[in-house]
Design goal:
6 strands; Arc Repressor Mutant, subunit A; Rossmann fold; 2 domains; 10 helices
Length: 220
């Protein structure tokens, strides 16, 4: 049985110890490192290359969102599950804009805690129910402010695959290899996605892709 290696990033020592004890209940999960601030989290991720980072957002030195962003720059395939007391829309969108793969509030029970871990380890995005409503409401509010955006359902299955890979930081060459298509075809799909989502600049696509993928995970 494969043991998934986990890095705990939490500045509250007692809560970090509680998480470590909870994770010991699972034979397939192993805590390989702990950090109490953002800078240490980046250092330990570089050193340990864990399968999953459990990341608090309120950290001394660098914030959790800043740490996620730097970890994702170094390793776009890194998996990060946010575990925080904050459930505000600003916290949610800053986390996902930084590259988080999941978001869970600390009042979740152990069943949801392990469900979130399993989902992110499998490559899915996880959003706890209360936060998912914020994501949807924020998306709808953005539509009212900037004009109607085309529905995500307008994307083809292949375009949705491309969107998911963009959200995870994949480059055109990587996507072409993963999907067994040419880079020219990838570029064409990206162009179609930009048009359907009414985006003027390719630079705005990765951040919007992460939010869009959350909605696609929620609604299929």
């Amino acid at each position: 049985m494969k043991r998934h290696r986990i890095l705990l990033v939490e500045d509250n020592t007692l809560f970090r110890e509680a998480l470590r004890l909870l994770l010991r209940e699972r034979e397939d999960l192993e805590v390989v490192g702990e950090a109490g601030d953002g800078a240490k989290a980046i250092e330990m991720h570089t050193k340990l290359k864990p399968d999953l980072v459990l990341m608090d957002l309120s950290l001394p030195d660098l914030s959790g969102a800043q740490a996620i962003h730097r970890i994702k720059i170094q390793d776009p395939q890194a998996k990060v599950l946010v575990l925080t007391v904050h459930g505000t829309d600003d916290s949610v969108f800053s986390a996902f804009s930084a590259g988080a793969d999941g978001y869970l509030v600390k009042d979740a029970d152990s069943q949801e805690f392990f469900l979130a871990i399993e989902s992110v380890l499998k490559g899915h995005m996880y959003v706890c129910p209360n936060v998912s409503r914020l994501v949807v409401n924020g998306y709808l509010a953005a539509r009212r402010q900037t004009g109607p955006l085309p529905l995500l359902s307008m994307l083809t299955p292949r375009e949705k695959e491309i969107l998911g890979l963009i959200a995870r930081g994949k480059r055109n060459k990587e996507m072409s290899q993963l999907l067994s298509i040419s880079t020219k075809t990838v570029e064409k799909h990206r162009s179609n996605i930009l048009k359907k989502l009414n985006l003027d600049s390719p630079k705005s696509l990765p951040a919007l892709a992460r939010k869009a993928v959350i909605l696609l995970e929620l609604h299929g």
